[in-house]
Amino acid sequence: MDYLTLNKEAWNKRAALHVSSTFYDVNGFLSGKTSLNKIELNALNDVQGKRLLHLQCHFGLDTLSWARLGAEVTGVDLSETAIEHANSLAKQSELAATFICRDVIEFGRTVNAEYDIVFTSYGVLCWMPDINLWAQTVANSLKEGGTFYLCEFHPYFDLLSGFSYFHQADGDVIKEGTYTENCDGELTELITWSHPISDVVNALIKVGIQITELNEYPYSPYNCFDGLELGDDGFYYVADSKQEIPLLFEIKGVKC
Ligand SMILES: C[S@@+](CC[C@H](N)C(=O)[O-])C[C@H]1O[C@@H](n2cnc3c(N)ncnc32)[C@H](O)[C@@H]1O
Known about the structure:
alpha/beta; Rossmann fold; 9 helices
């Protein structure tokens, strides 16, 4: 089975479980809460009237949260189950949004440079076998002067979890349950690739994204890995560690 079919099957199963999880809190979203975290809200503070593209939008909670803040949103995701739920949530919340079911690399080959903002976050890069093709999608989607924003789990934590830090062409075939609390114990097969921060930064530079910020954080807004504990600030940290362990990195840039 090719990598897109394998990952799509796994994400279809995950999306079906995720919509009814307390982790994603769809009811909270429908009652008016944002699903966005203060990290990305601080980074992209004014989206009013902007055309925002959300790459790997899952079932659209973050996309629709940006729409609530006034952005004109488009979300792209590989999983048709996720996109069906995204469209249904847009209707239920009476928010305008366009959702497209497609591989982001394929999407990037035909997109016009029409977006003011490209946003993508938390668990997106490891599904890309070729980080240069992913960066090309970002560049092809953005207008000149448009803003790119990524907040992603830190590859150093992946290394501690047993994955390679550096990229390996073959990727890792893994069998695991999902990260929401209603995980039914079913294991699904997925394939992932590691991308060190230098590869991500260089891929963006090569396609003409001028990087304006690169930040690393020792916390995550999500309790989605084993061995995390809640801090007083509402973020999750690696428990029982003498030193702070990086859990996130964030990149902001502008298309030249
Ligand atoms: C961890 S989720 C994204 C997280 C998102 N921040 C959230 O929690 O709503 C990863 C998403 O990437 C999507 N995905 C994986 N490979 C993809 C590809 N090649 N093209 C488009 N979407 C892909 C999956 O379907 C899934 O919805």
